[in-house]
Each structure stands twice: as structure tokens, then as C-alpha cells.
Design brief:
Oligomer: single chain
Largest sheet: 9 strands, antiparallel
Strand content: 15-25%
Structural class: alpha+beta
Number of helices: 16
Length: 630
């Protein structure tokens, strides 16, 4: 009877293989890494990371020219600066302009004009609203330096003083808000006056306009630049499904993503510096992304620019940099010019990111969120979830509703699949008879079975579709739960306070009644158990397969999946449980409609020896080869 369920078993085995691969590459438990990250956060005050000054003249060169001899992230002729104290001490080391918007708080350093202090008001480190808010950007001189620079690069050999990391700017006021821009000024003493006008919106987008006026007697050529610099390799989650590192969209050259480790292995750009360069891009952006947060610089979308990702050893650790360099602009005596660029430094909220792409015409800025290969399905599915959430206020309930909608969308196909499965069950006696009749001739056996399927209008692989259709939905929903910040710390009901995290309860300590913390491999919450029960019921709806191997597989599969999904996001397990329940209801209705016995209760009774084994199928009468009746 192994051939009876060959296609269904193939679908099940493929599903198991895919889920195992997904678990290994995408969702492999990272408990030790998460604990290390937590310890890292606690030790932030005492960590020592290199914090070199960043001189654009040393880190970038005009298109077609070679970079300067100084290493990226270091002042010319000076070694990279080391951590001199805590973050608070680093902030206090220079005069500052306060940043205050509805979404972010922080400051701008007047030394260098850097945007190097940004915290996200709406997001906390844990689900506890009293936990510290997320710190995104931090100044050089303190631990985990992470900042953004803008300005000008002078043409090679011109020796024109331009603002650098040590330049002390003057400001026209002491606070930057959505309604109040800040203008920074600096005179190089050789006829050039530089101004930087910084604006910020209600969210996390800075607008930077760099102006220069030439009061001297000679023309100068300047190149606008912008960069994001991160000193020290950050701890990453290490999931294959998620990109963390340097990212950018560079015109016709498209989306570019490099992890920190891959960047370190790139070819040399200059002595001591490795990385990649993309020339003559028009439209796009470059930056550094984490799971939920990012910092990205955006050049003028109408002008050509050169994008670059680079890595250099500074002190005991490496410094990572994503930057752009615009085309040279000649400034005649008595003339002035300006360059417009932007900085995004905040949470990767889908509505905000899409809004910037549309309102500010930033080419493919939506790809700052890692939607993955199934972008065409994952992103629309998120929009449906988000739309429902905005009307009901609970992402968990939105997942339940979307599951019902998907069931309705695929109902015709699923209906045919279950109906075909029901007919297959009704024809088991005839199929058994055919196999016994042609036991020694597999070719005739298959021909006779196919003729039976054709006569009865049955698709033998129809039973695979309910399983196969669930796989892309499973992957897309997993991606949404994993990457979108909207799902972060989103509660459901009861004990589920974060749909993007595993169910926090555990069977092995009686759901918290016993003061014992089981090892991570034994993490088995209430919702995975519910999922296992619904899967068990779904399996027992069908007659038990006569083959012992198949029977064992069907018996243990719910247990296997229960443990497998124990470390998956709770939102995904809730979806799977609800989908199983809907499938059981639908399958039961179709089986009853087609007059096929539902084996659920008999199968359960047999497990406990309370019911007799199923009676062997009665073979149908044999027919002569010519088809005539006897």
C-alpha cells in the first residue's frame, strides 16, 4: 500500500525538509547569542572600541581619482582615537545642539557638525515600558560610536581648507525641532564661507543643505559627500533570513547588501582599507542596517554619485563606513553653490519608509526593509495585516482574520483537493483489488489506477495542495513577524506579549508553577502544544495507513512539529494552529458531504485499544481484460 499515499507523503516529506532547513538557516535558536547581546548592552558603559575621527578628505576621493593616503575613519596624520570614557562623557566633550522631535531625541555636535546622538523615543529595549529607550547613534570617543557626517571634499592637490572632524561650527540657535531648523557656519580664513542648514521632520529624516560662498580670487572645485560610520563590529543575530550590515540602492546597479564579515573579505581600496565601490549611480542611497533600525544617507537623486562600502582596522577593532561622493562643483570667485542630501536615522517603520520614497522621490527606499525574495507576496500580506490591525488594534487577531481570508481565497482549490481525497478514500477497495490483480506487473497496475482516476475524475495529487499552499504563506508570515518593527512587542491575549518572540510559557516547568528553567531545546510553550493538538486531530481525520512506516510517520509528525515550532515566533504558531482548525472543519464538512466516514474518533479509540482494527477492504469483482461482463 505504499503507493496509495506516495504523492501525499512526498508533500509531507518536502514540507518537513523545508521546515527543517528553515529552522536551521533562518530560525535556529540563538539563545546564547541573545544572552551575549544582553550582556553587551549591560557592559556598554565599559566597553573599549576605537573611535577615530572621520576626515572626508582622507576617506573619499573625487570620481576617477585615488583615495588619499590616510585611512578611512582617521584624521590625516593621526592614529585612530580610542575610547576615552562613557557615552555621557563623550557627549559632554563638545558643545551641542539639542534634537527634539515626536519620534527621536538627541543632539548634534558642533565639533565636526556630526549627527552622532539619536535615541528613539517610541521604542524600548524590552516589552517593559520602563526599560531604557533604544539608543541608535553615539559619538566618537565613547563606546560603540555610530554617527553620520556631511560636507565637502576638496579637489586633490588644491590644499583648500574644508570643514573636517575637528571644525568648530557656530550655530544660530540651540535647538533643532520640526518647526525650527539650525544653521551652522564656518569660515576657512581663505575666502570660503561654509553654511550647513539642518532640518528634521516629525519622524527621523534629516535634511542637510551644505552651502559654500567663494569670496576669494580663485575658483575652487568641491565634491559633496555624506557618510555613515560605525566603529566596532556590532553583535548580529546571524539569521540567514535577515540582512544586517551595509546596504544601499545604487541606481541601475540596484540593491547592494554586504554583511560585516563579507565586507572584511572584499578587495583593497587603499592601503589598509577594503571594500566595494559603485560609480556613476543616479538615484539611491547607502547606509547601515540592523534588524529594526537603520542609518542611511541619501544624495541628490538627480545627480551622479559614487557609492562605497569600506572597512578598515582601527586600533583593536574595525570601522565600517557607507558613503556617497557627488560630482565635483566648480565655484567661481564671487559665486556660491549648494548641495542637498538627507539622513534617515530611526526605526524602519513601513509607513514612514514608503512615505519617504514617495514624498521625497528616494529611489527604492522601501528596500531598506529586508522584504526578501518573496517581496511581491510578503509586502502585500503585511499591508493587509496592517490595515486590519488599524481597525481592530491587535495584530494577533489580524493574523486570525487574514488566515480566514486566505482560506476563502484558496477555497475552490482546497475544496477540490479535499473532495478528491474523499473520493480516493471511497475507492480504496477498488484500488486494493487492482494492486492485487496486477501485483506482478507494475506497469499494468499504474495504467489501471490511472484509468480508474480518469473514470472517477480524481486527481491523485490533489491532496498535496492544502499542504503546499500553506508553505509560501508560512514563509511570508514568518518574514513579516521577523523583520517588521510593527510586530515587535505586539501583544495578543493572555500571556503573549510579543508576537515576534516565542511563546514564553513552558510545559516542562508546568507553565511557571515550578521554579525551574528548562534548557532551550526543551522550550515548549502553550501555543505550540495547541498547534500540536490541532495537527494531531487533522491527521486522525483520515483512515490510518496500512503501511507501518507511514503509520508511524503520521503518528509522530504532530509531536515533531510541536517541538519544531516551539522556538518560532508566537504569531506564526498561532497562525498554524488556527489554520489547522479551519482545515479540520473544512475537511470534515467535505468528507461528510461526499459520504466518506470521518475516522477521527475511531482512530483515537484504537490508540488506546478501545476500538477494533479497521476491517480489510473488500476487493471489487475482477473484470475481464476486454471489459465484457461475465
Amino acid at each position: 500500500m505504499k503507493e496509495d499515499n506516495r504523492n501525499l507523503l512526498l508533500a509531507i516529506v518536502l514540507s518537513v525538509v523545508i521546515l527543517l532547513g528553515w529552522q536551521f538557516f533562518y530560525a535556529k535558536p540563538q539563545m546564547e547569542k541573545q544572552q551575549e547581546i544582553a550582556r553587551q548592552n549591560q557592559q556598554t558603559q565599559t566597553q573599549a572600541a576605537p573611535a577615530g575621527a572621520s576626515n572626508p578628505a582622507a576617506t573619499a576621493a573625487p570620481p576617477g581619482q585615488q583615495a588619499g593616503s590616510a585611512a578611512p575613519g582617521a584624521a590625516p596624520g593621526a592614529a585612530a582615537a580610542q575610547v576615552s570614557g562613557t557615552r555621557e562623557q563623550a557627549l559632554a566633550a563638545s558643545p551641542r545642539i539639542k534634537i527634539d522631535t515626536p519620534k527621536i531625541a538627541g543632539s548634534i555636535s558642533l565639533a565636526g557638525g556630526r549627527i552622532d546622538d539619536v535615541s528613539l523615543k517610541a521604542y524600548h529595549e524590552t516589552v517593559d515600558p520602563k526599560s531604557p529607550i533604544i539608543v541608535l547613534l553615539s559619538p566618537a570617543g565613547g563606546p560603540n560610536a555610530y554617527y553620520s557626517d556631511f560636507g565637502w571634499v576638496a579637489a586633490p592637490g588644491s590644499n583648500v581648507p574644508v570643514p573636517n572632524a575637528t571644525t568648530l561650527w557656530t550655530a544660530d540657535n540651540q535647538s533643532l525641532t520640526p518647526s525650527q531648523p539650525v544653521t551652522l557656519s564656518w569660515d576657512n580664513g581663505q575666502g570660503l564661507t561654509f553654511k550647513r542648514i539642518i532640518r528634521v521632520d516629525d519622524n527621523a529624516m534629516f535634511s542637510i543643505r551644505d552651502e559654500v560662498e567663494n569670496k576669494g580670487s580663485a575658483a575652487v572645485t568641491l565634491f559633496p559627500y555624506g557618510q555613515v560610520v560605525r566603529q566596532g563590529k556590532p553583535h548580529t543575530l546571524g539569521y540567514y533570513v535577515l540582512h544586517e550590515g551595509l546596504v544601499g540602492y545604487l541606481g541601475e546597479q540596484g540593491l547592494q547588501e554586504l554583511t560585516y564579515d563579507k565586507l572584511d573579505k572584499e578587495g583593497p581600496l587603499s592601503p589598509g582599507t577594503v571594500g566595494k565601490v559603485w560609480k556613476d549611480a543616479v538615484g539611491g542611497w547607502v547606509g547601515i542596517t540592523d534588524k529594526y533600525w537603520a542609518a542611511a544617507v541619501v544624495p541628490d537623486q538627480a545627480r551622479k554619485f559614487e557609492g562605497r562600502f569600506s572597512s578598515v582596522q582601527t586600533g583593536t577593532e574595525r570601522t565600517y563606513q557607507a558613503d556617497f561622493l557627488g560630482e565635483g562643483i566648480a565655484v567661481a570667485p564671487g559665486a556660491s553653490t549648494a548641495s542637498q542630501s538627507r539622513l534617515f536615522a530611526g526605526a524602519k517603520e513601513v509607513a514612514a519608509i514608503n512615505g519617504y520614497e514617495e514624498s521625497q522621490q528616494i529611489k527604492r527606499f522601501d528596500l531598506l526593509i529586508d522584504w526578501g525574495w518573496f517581496y511581491f507576496f510578503t509586502k502585500p500580506l503585511f499591508f493587509v495585516l496592517d490595515w486590519i490591525y488599524k481597525h481592530i488594534g491587535n495584530f494577533g487577531v489580524a493574523i486570525l482574520i487574514v488566515t480566514v481570508l486566505l482560506k476563502g481565497l484558496f477555497f475552490p482549490l482546497a475544496n477540490k483537493s479535499y473532495a478528491s481525497m474523499a473520493k480516493m478514500k471511497a475507492l480504496q477497495p477498488e484500488m486494493t483489488a487492482i494492486r492485487e490483480r496486477y501485483a506482478d506487473d507494475k506497469m499494468k497496475q499504474q495504467q489501471a489506477l490511472m484509468e480508474l482516476y480518469k473514470t472517477q475524475k480524481i486527481n491523485p495529487v490533489a491532496g498535496c495542495w492544502p499542504v503546499l499552499l500553506q508553505i509560501p504563506v508560512f514563509f511570508a508570515l514568518y518574514k513579516i513577524l521577523f523583520i517588521t518593527i510593527e510586530m515587535r512587542h505586539a501583544p495578543f491575549f493572555g500571556w503573549i506579549h510579543d508576537l515576534a518572540a516565542p511563546d514564553p510559557t513552558n510545559l516542562f516547568n508546568l507553565f511557571g508553577l515550578i521554579p525551574y528553567t528548562p534548557p532551550h531545546m526543551l522550550h515548549l510553550g502553550a501555543w505550540p502544544l495547541i498547534m500540536g493538538v490541532t495537527m494531531f486531530i487533522q491527521m486522525k481525520m483520515n483512515p490510518e495507513p496500512p503501511d507501518p512506516v507511514q503509520k508511524m510517520m503520521f503518528t509522530w509528525m504532530p509531536v515533531f512539529f510541536t517541538f519544531l515550532l516551539g522556538s518560532f515566533p508566537a504569531g506564526l504558531v498561532i497562525y498554524w494552529s488556527w489554520n489547522n482548525l479551519l482545515s479540520v472543519t473544512q475537511q470534515g464538512f467535505i468528507m461528510k458531504k461526499n459520504g466518506v466516514k470521518i475516522e477521527l474518533f475511531d482512530n483515537i479509540k484504537r490508540m488506546f485499544g478501545k476500538a477494533p482494527p479497521p476491517a480489510p477492504a473488500t476487493p471489487a469483482p475482477a473484470k475481464p481484460a476486454n471489459g465484457n461482463k461475465k
